[in-house]
Amino acid sequence: MSHLIAPSVLAANFAQLGTDVEMLNQSSADWIHIDVMDGRFVPNISFGFPVIQAIQKIAKKTMDVHLMIEHPELYIEQFRQVGADNITVHYEACPHLHRTLQQIKASGAKAGVALNPHTPISSLSEIIQDIDVVCLMSVNPGFGGQKFIQHTYQKIKDLKTLITQKRSACLIEIDGGVNQENAPLLLEAGADVLVAGSFVFNSENPVQTILDLKQIQK
Predict the structure, then answer these.
(1) Which one of 30, 64, 132, 175 is the catalytic residue?
(2) Is 130 a catalytic residue?
(3) Does the active-site annotation cover 35?
(4) pTM value?
């Protein structure tokens, strides 16, 4: 399978969000990544249900919704109703992670788990077979435009080993600081999905930037 590109609309121009989503529709992007922040689990606040529903009415790509919130289990069905195709929750926010993953799958969405930079891959050893996407945070969550954490490469390799050992089919998604320079190394290490926000939306030609990321050869 060719790797997937998931531009993050956290870096879009909120004054012309519809226009930016239409641009992603016309681009070679595979998913639209939507970061939901509650100001408690992470020190920032972003999109709520009305904005996501508005995006869903325009979007023609898979909506990849990343919940950086406390108690995500309270809102799974609502996020599914407003258009989430993938719902990713944080390991650190879910004391009953297996139950939450089953809740996501029962809603009809793909179930993802995100790991903060300090959380070891071994945390997922007993549940990796129940996960569709593991999102490795390559920056500390909460804000766009941060510097990429170099240890991410080793975490990808460790996660790939775990997936192989457990015969899981889950994808490895990288979120934070992705650019044209580190993307080939991320893919070589075993990444399947690259989330890119500032690098895409701050470029002179976002459509071309997405295409360039898509065409990288492993």
Answers:
(1) 175
(2) no
(3) yes
(4) 0.96
How many domains in the chain? 1
Res. 4: pLDDT tops 90: yes
Question: Could you tell me the CATH number of the domain that includes residue 165?
Answer: 3.20.20.70
The tokens of 89 are what? Answer: 């929750």
Tens of pLDDT, residues 120-143: 999 999 999 999 999 999 999 876
Residues comprising the binding site? 8, 33, 35, 66, 142-145, 175-177, 197-198
Kindly name the residue from 35, 38, 64, 132 that is annotated as catalytic.
35
Rounded percentage of the chain residues whose pLDDT exceeds 70: 98
**Who's near 120: CB < 8 A, 6+ residues apart?**
none
Range of the domain at 150: 4-214
Q: How many Cα atoms occupy the beta-carbon half-sphere of 110 within 13 Å?
A: 16
Q: What integer pLDDT is reported at residue 27 of this predicted model? A: 98
